[in-house]
Design goal:
alpha/beta; Rossmann fold; 10-stranded mixed sheet; 5 helices; 10 strands
Length: 167
């Protein structure tokens, strides 16, 4: 089953999903995927990391500062090494896993960049439950572009606990 975890920018989508991942790991679930926690300085988001949800390993994904070997999109420079790291993690997900997480599918992927290729490939062999983070205004476009059907919407503001998934 595909679940779309949605909310506005800075509403706590990654924080919510990170908490669920920790709980699922504690429960012994087989899981994998990527999280994209933000790094803040002086109340401003300055960069994002990409984190392997299974191992906790992290790489710089994007920065407001210009990076070498990076592509720009919006106000951020996306590290090719960070993108490759995330792609490799996504390619390691499989149908034997109980839970897969993808944080996030957004404007970069709708422009056929970022996780777009890896995400499309993942959909052919996705874990039994796949949680995909998508900003609220992009849900319909992402669902259409990536042929996500059927799916269930989860909102950051809902009080539904992480235990919504069977395990």
């Amino acid at each position: 089953m595909i679940y779309i975890l949605t909310g506005e920018i800075n509403s706590g989508k990654t924080t919510t999903l990170s908490g669920w991942v920790e709980a699922w790991r504690s429960d012994g679930c087989t899981l994998g995927g990527i999280l994209a926690p933000a790094n803040w300085q002086g109340g401003k988001k300055i960069s994002y990391d990409v984190m392997d949800a299974q191992t906790g390993k992290r790489r710089l994904l994007a920065s407001r500062k210009r990076l070498r070997n990076a592509e720009s999109f919006g106000p951020f420079w996306f590290s090719k090494k960070g993108l490759l790291f995330g792609e490799k993690v996504l390619m390691g997900l499989n149908a034997e896993m109980e839970i897969g997480v993808v944080d996030e599918i957004g404007p970069l992927e709708l422009d056929h960049r970022g996780w777009a290729q890896g995400f499309r490939s993942l959909l052919s062999h996705a874990p039994r439950n796949l949680i995909v983070v998508v900003r609220t205004p992009l849900v319909k476009e992402v669902a259409h572009s990536f042929h996500l059907s059927p799916f269930e919407i989860l909102t950051v503001s809902s009080s539904r606990p992480y235990s919504i998934l069977p395990h």
